[in-house]
Amino acid sequence: MPSPVSRFSFSLARKIARPVSAPLVVAGYRTRDFFAMVFDIGNLHRENQQLANDLVESKVDQAKMDELQQENSALKTQLDYKESSSGMKLTLADVIGLDPTNYYGTLMLDKGSNDGVAVGQAVVSLGVLVGKIDQVSATSSRVMLITSSNSIVQVMLENSRTTGVLIGGISGMKLEDIPLETQIAPNENIITSGLGGNLPKGILVGTAGSEISAKSDIFETVEVSSPIDFSRLEYLFIVTGV
Q1: In whole angstroms, what is the distance from residue 95 CA to residue 109 CA?
Q2: Based on the domain organization, do 64 and 105 belong to the same domain?
Q3: Which of 15, 173, 190, 213 could link 221 by a cystine bridge, Cβ 3.0 to 4.6 Å?
């Protein structure tokens, strides 16, 4: 059994050590809490990064799904037109390139001579003329759009059967060489005449607008508008036969 002196010494030692050991214990707890906090922050960062990655993947997947739906809708619209058309052999083509040096002037298609494509053939969207083939390789072809300043198409007014020339340009399309006595109905349809080239007769080109010829001109000139948005062409038909 410890003597009174021993018990007194042990008690005194505890009293002396307590002020010293208490901060060490607290410091130990704080150190443990600090490393735990660092560990938790690391886990939280990894979880946040994973959530961010999952969100990006989800957006990519949704974008792919939306794009497929858009493509299917556009293709269905074009194919529905093909089913309803008669008398023309149509070859579906994808737009694969635009000419950056010629605004709305030309575009490239993924069909060429291997698919029966030839220079001069008409190119249509939903039955409306958008241009004609002017260059062909084995697997691709170039379209000269009717909006191009280099485009000239023989056309006619659907009601009067008066023929004229469709000219493209930066300021818009116009119908030229119409006799002054011609009566043009408001929004009268303009169609291909079948003259001067491989374009079949009767393809819709657009509608007649305001007269823009001068009083001194010996022929009438009118504006022409197309129902097609030339900035959004994706799938087109090449008229490879009639």
Answers
A1: 5
A2: no
A3: 213
